[in-house]
Amino acid sequence: MKYHIEEMIAKSEIANKVRLLADNINKDLNNEDVLLIGLLRGSVMFLADIAREINNVSEIDFMSVSSYGSGMVTSGEIKILKDLDVNIEGKNVIIIEDIIDTGFTLSKVTKILKERNPKSLRICTLLDKPERRVTDVFVDYVGFIIPDEFVVGYGIDYAQKHRALSYIGKVVKDGEDNE
Ligand code: PRP
Ligand code: MN
Ligand code: MG
């Protein structure tokens, strides 16, 4: 497919939003320690930036999950490719995600992590595409609600590309047909 990328959310808008989200998180945490969990790989840019704005980040860890099966339809099941290294029991935990689409990833990860008895478990996502939601997920902190467009950049990929863009762009297909 031939395509180009159009800027949708500028670098400065992302930076402002990161500070705003962190301010809200800091108010809610009230100076308690917090463990941040990033879901590889899309969340890395957002996690790196917001971690530096959140007070009392005691630990940072990562998890990697993938949808079961292949093809275009998500099965709703996930498998853990890399689990956390740290124990979350009794800790304040915030999952940092780049985007919520169908909601499968976060609903499953939340379920898995709740069973480990954290003191609190919250979700912070930079982007939310509510039109695509298949399964309910309660999200505590949302940066931007976006329409059902294919987006890339600031960690988010299209076929593993464009993760290092400093802005969020929209993938625009060139021409009418011919994939
Ligand atoms: C993307 C994105 C979210 C997830 C959202 O990750 O980063 O983690 O999909 O989709 P969902 O709400 O429908 O579950 P992906 O599986 O593409 O892996 P990546 O982060 O390595 O790109
Ligand atoms: Mn991801
Ligand atoms: Mg991806």
TrEMBL record:
Pathway the protein acts in: Purine metabolism; IMP biosynthesis via salvage pathway; IMP from hypoxanthine: step 1/1
Superkingdom classification of source: Bacteria
Annotated catalysed reactions: IMP + diphosphate = hypoxanthine + 5-phospho-alpha-D-ribose 1-diphosphate; GMP + diphosphate = guanine + 5-phospho-alpha-D-ribose 1-diphosphate
Record keywords, A-Z: Cytoplasm, Glycosyltransferase, Magnesium, Metal-binding, Nucleotide-binding, Purine salvage, Transferase
Keyword check for Ribonucleoprotein: no
Molecular function GO labels: guanine phosphoribosyltransferase activity; hypoxanthine phosphoribosyltransferase activity; magnesium ion binding; nucleotide binding
Presence of the UniProt keyword Cytoplasm in the record: yes
Cofactor section: Mg(2+)
Subcellular location: Cytoplasm
Gene3D superfamilies referenced in this protein's UniProt entry, alphabetically: 3.40.50.2020
Domain Phosphoribosyltransferase: 12-158
Family: Belongs to the purine/pyrimidine phosphoribosyltransferase family.
Entry protein name: Hypoxanthine phosphoribosyltransferase
GO biological-process terms attached to the record: GMP salvage; guanine salvage; hypoxanthine metabolic process; IMP salvage; purine ribonucleoside salvage
Natural source organism: Oceanivirga miroungae
